[in-house]
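ugh ok so i messed up the first submission bc i forgot one of the chains. this is the corrected input, ALL of the components this time, i swear. 1770 residues overall. if the numbers dont match what u have on ur side tell me asap before i send this to the collaborators (the ones from the other lab, u know who)
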Amino acid sequence: MKLSKKFCLLAVVLLAPLAVLAQNVVKGTVLDSQNQPIIGASVIEKNNTRNGTVTDLDGNFTLKLQRGTTAIVSYLGMLPQEIQASNENRTITLQEDLKTMDEVVVVGYTSKARKDLTGSVGSISGMKLAAVPVASAAEAMQGKIAGVQVTTVDGAPGADINIRIRGNTSVTQSNEPLYIVDGFQVANINDIPPTDIASIDVLKDASLTAIYGAKGGNGVVVVTTKAAKEGRISVGFNGRATVAHLSKKLDLMDTQDFVNYQYDRAAANGTRSSWAKYFRGNFGNPLDLDIYQRATTYDWQDEVMGETPLNYSANVTVGGGSDKIRFNTSLTQSNDNGIIMGSGVRRTNLNIKLNVDLSKNLTLTLNPRMTYRRDIGAGGDNIGSGGIINVLQYRPTNGLREFAFWDPATVDPDDEAIFQYTNPKNDIQTNTQKRHSYNIVNQFALTWTPIKGLVLQTEAAYNITFSDTNRFWGPLTGTGQNNNSLPVAEVINSQSSSYTWTNTATYDFSLNEEHNFSFLLGQEIYNRQSRSNDQLNRYFPRGIDSERAINNMTLGTPWSSTSYLSTPNRTASFFGQANWNYVHRYLFSATFRADGSTKFAPGKQWGYFPSLSGAWVVSEEPWMKDVKWIDNWKVRASWGTSGNNNISDDMWRYLYGVQTTGGPGFGENVVNGEQYYQFGGGNQIANPQIKWETTISRNLAMDLSFFNGRLQITPEVYWKTTKDLLYRSDIPSTSGYTTQYQNIGQVTNRGFELSVNADLVRGIDYVLSANFNMGFNKRVIDKLNNTDDVIWDTNNRWHSSFNDYCLRVGDELGLIYGFVNDGLYSPSEFTFDPNQNFTAFPIPLELDANGKRVSGTVINQVLNASNSGDPTLPGKIKFKDLNNDGYITEADRTVIGNTNPKVQGGFGLSGQWKGFDLSANFYYMLDFDINNATAYALSSSTTSGSNFTNVLTKFNNRWIYTNPEDGECMYRNYYIDGSVDSYIAMNQGRTLWNPADVVNNVTMSAFIEDGSFLRMQDLTIGYTFPSKVARKLGLSKLRLYASGSNLFILTNYSGYDPEVDIQTGLTPGMDYNRYPRNRAFSFGVNLNF
Amino acid sequence: MKIKNIFFVGIALAGLTSCNDYLSVDAPSKYDNTYVFSNVNEINRALNGVYAQLLSGSTYGDNYLTTFCMNSDVDYATNSNEQSTNNSFRRFDCTSDASNLRSTWNAVYQGIEYANNFIYQLERSPLYTPDNSDYAALQQQMGEAKVIRAMFYHDLMWLWGDVPFSFTPSSEAKDYVMPVMSRDEINMKLIEDLESIAPNMQYAHSMKDGVERVSKEFAWAMIARIAMTAGGYSLRPDVSGNSYGTMQRPANYKDFYQLAHQYCDSIIKSGTHKLNNSYPQVFVNECNYTVVNDDDPIFEIPFTKNTSGNIGYLHGPRLNMNGNIGVGSWGGASSNAQVSFFYRYSFDQRDLRLKYIDGLWAYTSTTNGAGQDSIAVNPNFTYTLYNNKWSKLWSTTGLGSATEGGDGINFPYMRYTDVLLMNAEALNELEGPNDEAKENLMTVRRRAFDPTDQPQMVNTYVDSVSATKESFLNAILNERKWEFGGENMRWKDLVRNNKYSEALYYQFLRYLIVAEFIGGSSSDYEDAVEAYDNVTAHKEYLSYMPTNIFWRRTSNPNNPSVFPNTSIDVLEVYNPWWQTVRPQDDNTNNIHWQGSDVLGWWNDGAGAPQNQVLYSLYGFMRGDVNGNIFMIDGNGSPIPMPHPNSVNVSNLPVVRYILPYPRDIIQRSAGAYKNYYGYLN
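and heres the new structure output, hopefully the right one now
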């Protein structure tokens, strides 16, 4: 209880009137290891806590002491020192207390000393957070805690951050952990400014999370923001400016190559085929294509994603107070514009913490927080109307238009407008979304300590969020064109409110200072409800801009106006916990929680979640006392259950909703048609049988600390079983619906985690420490529903013609199924029939008695015919015929990729030398696959003959149909002698197919790439000016720093970035339409006044 | 003491929230069955949901008139793609992958589910009892839902043959993979279902919403239509060999024809519908949102203005959009639902129905958006013509210059003439051309001809075609062909009588002959085809097609019976029918003729007919640039076309008009469903 003792001392010092027992005076200056003065260190006479003082702004103090006594100099987080009274002016250098054993960790409605923990907690201190400039708290956690995977969905500013603690327990529902900020549950931590954070604790195993019941099933992230401290009012300022740019570009064809490719594509069915006519209309005579040598290449990556936004973040913190009232206020403003035009996030946060001691044993805490957030753009899928893919595919030249003079009088303005619109830049400008959100959280807690050891607390939090989403579709967007080619605008106002009310009682006591008990009993209710009003108007004047339309909805014609109030989502909970330890050596803890949820039908509402855990602190054993080099050796084991109810409301009951548009128009009496009842949730049918998904987890771990804390090692193993998975299954649409929530199957996660922290070198004014962590996790499907042992699924981001993911009992989750590439069909596998225009015919199959292929050409039945003909032709993609029946069918799919990283983790270095500080962080994921569907889109041509889409430069070496010299199509050319030989000769040695021949999406091994990567997450160098310099400027602290993020990534992945969709849902690892990541450089300043 | 207090406070706090009441929550913006089915008005609102399913663009609102309106000698869409595709349904060329298959399938089954659920819940409603004063109204509502359900199944079976079938709503179903049932069995169940409720339904004229709602007459007519279909031919799967299948009709087909006759007769005898309005007026009324309850329409799908239905947008003269501005106050029209160029030549020139199906010109607004001052010969004059039965232009007010689809113009799903002709067809099959059948045919024809032409074109004509059962059947099919252009009827009539292959075979040759004629060669098929067509106006009509036409703009005749729109300029075409020399300009009256080349059906570069000629019936019959013409046999292999002189039309390959089940339906059926008809998967 050293820590609490220190607190007591401090309190007493401040409370007690300074006794004047003038005898001897002790004077001095208190410095830290970097020779910086420590302000507010306490100097107290030993054994007489009534006599003491604190150091001033220069670290100086004066204390009168009685002769023969000593004073103790102490400061939070430092080792106290004892000094003798003397007349000399002394310099006292306090050493940091590196033993973190007494650190307090916030766990489930209470806090515990780390040494008494029986579960797994990973922590990041605020010091570490402060050193590196990051845009969000989650980003700061990346790669720093073993078993915690932090990935951003993509590179969009303000993109959703996926935090996964020990793999995904649920395969189908959100695996978002529970976020607790200062004791209150919040939806996410995206909007908490990193500069406000004092510490982050991640509760990883069920023995700790069980107290949170269902909500804790995916782990708990506990964020503690900087507390209100008593003392002189302090003011801090943190500022940062950042420049970002696209970190990688894809290599796409330039104009000349593009036009040649397009001709080859168009003329693949004959020099004068219908597609070739489209080509001539757009690009001119195929024999004159050399004019494009001088034509401009529009690089849409540069035009659209080439922004180098200058972003900033500024934060002011004011804190202080008296012994009765303490406060801390922080105001943060930040702006993050994206590298893609028309995207960005701006945030303003205000956080006020106020603690009031109403009486000796009654404390009131108030914590209002306000957040404003403005989002522009709507993510990678909504860049313009077709997403990033359309930007990449967009033709790099306008063809003949580049060369022609267009007399404005002769131009058809409609044609011209449509033409210009299709260019991605204009598309983005006419297809906009802007969203403002305001979030207000009011938190209140009253803590009463009626008798020693007993704490009663009631906590309430009320959270209200308003947002307006303003969507505008210009006249030429798809939506606009469906509405008389006039603009459409939509304003959605939504409001959601939630409250949590928690009442807890804890009671701690000890018997003989040996048996330490603590009990917790509590009850909680949670309610959340949202309301939205949606106004959708169309037929705006054609030329209107988005702002004007949004601000003057009356200029359009009302189309739909709806309001909606959701079913309250409620949880009622009861929980209790008992802890016992014997001299902090043998520890035991038991927890039980019951949660009732409105997400399920009556009778299935309650879930019960018990857990047990224990620990043995070996190093506390008497026989270990002599082993000096081991500071701490603890063995922990736990077992616990948790639940998941993270599905939409009312999935268990059949309900009707009133629809106001689309009804029948009897007599045209009602605009938009008669009202009608829609049954079910649109395409989704209710399932009265759904119930809690539950996870049982087991954990075994050791905490080891050596050499006075210089080396800390924590190995852990765990085993988690999740059953009754909540899954939104696709059901046969002959039912009238397409999906339904069902409880299916069982999944097991097994894993091993290791974290190592070491102070490599340590001295008076320097320290260099390193940390390393890694996690292995394997997810296996034990069981599916009772009827199937295989469930097929398709990624709905990139629609493959065949199901491309499969859940199979005994397999890992997230396996990609597809066809195995086997090069290209060679001309020798065909006969060219002179009687049929030299069409290539596959050599007929010969099958043996078992129906297995003996000889002949394997027939591809999965790719569609293209302009050049059937999918089985020379130069087209060939697949392995795995069942050897002579035909490529669905049966020839196999596992071609595993999207689960085998190992993931991070490592970092941080150091200090005099005023300089350095920190570098890396993280990695090894051995996992990604379906590079972006590359597929840029290696294929799924649009019609009148559309011209760009492809990757490497396809300059593609299979070709037209002779580059005279533009004649050589395939099926009956009027040129020896055309077959020329056709074969000109394709000699070509190994890449012609993108024009791939016209449907079929998952194949050629696009499955290993995504292993090592990313240099950040590198920061800072310098803290000596306090003398700072003082002259009127500051108590001045630090400048420079930082780079995402400076490099080591990977063989050919797409923008391999970190996409990692382990999300059932169909992970799909790189399609993802916002590319940026590389950013920041400069910042930290000031304290 | 203190601890005790604290304990009690704690218990009290817990008690506040412990009861399960806290977890019983209402859904404030949603309603349950008990609420919805406890009040006639709410039940009606639920019934509106069933009607709403009819309005989908995937079915009756658009796709049934375009995407899935199979090519025939009436409704026609060209396709120039030389390769097989996955979604060219109209030319019998698709795969189970096509997205339209899935969206239409889902829309139909969603509709069936709405109807199933409504019927199931209403049957169990405490109100649905004879004691209730609203029982009659509820029975009518029950009937409406049952007939709509029958519509969905009926049209579904036309496209997919045997289909998964259930009358149970999914909320009560044990298994979402319901078994495939044969069309014969489903038809029996539908007929039985409708026969049980039809007597309790009301006549259209006694209902507030009239023929926009399902009436007793429509229920009867639906029974008749289902019975005719059940008794007719259809393509049956080859379960063992997966060939395209064979055309068959049930052995007891006459029972079905008897049933059809019985219900058609009930409607005719009830006298609630007459053909008083002229033929064009029926459709012009629809375009003006005027619902007439005792005339030709028996049921109109109640599309909603500005919201649903593309009837006026898909038909009529094309109206170009120039930017956001279309033509006058009528906006734009894609006019994608068109009829074959040769359709017009099958008519007698005196037929009043003729001039509404051969739209020769389109409207293009000017660049300054001023309106309709630009008008041009139909740019599609080449292969197809506009069907002017409906048009956005016929609306006197228009929906606005910026409007396109969602015109809300009702579609006459069931017409009295259909009932008359079904009756005639059934009677002819049962008893030959008897007087009642002849009178039915004459009733239809009387409206189609001027009183002066009636003696010859109605009485004499009907007498002459009544010579044999076969000639009378042909006359009925011809009458249906002239009466129902654009109503997605012709291919079904042909299938029902197993004449689809024959009709398409000649249809392909007509285009080919004219293309070759334009290309400068003559075809040895011409005589045979002309003999088959028997065009009275011009025996050798195929070689007299107008390859260029002469036209001029004239002011509006201001006579709705000539051109239903009375404010917009029209074209006068000098030679809409036959080749001629350029007419003299009448300089004194300032009449200048302009000439346009049309019928560019020959590709000079390739030395072959245009792709549209060769590939528009791809999955049944197609040509290549070398002049070979193939028909596709029952195994999907091209075989040489038989010459018309030697052809035995009964031996032509079948038309694979049946569609494959969408791929994901098969995938999710766990092996229960399988595609036949030669589809690969």
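quick check: The longest helix of chain A spans residues 2-15. that seems consistent at least. The radius of gyration of chain A is 34 Å.
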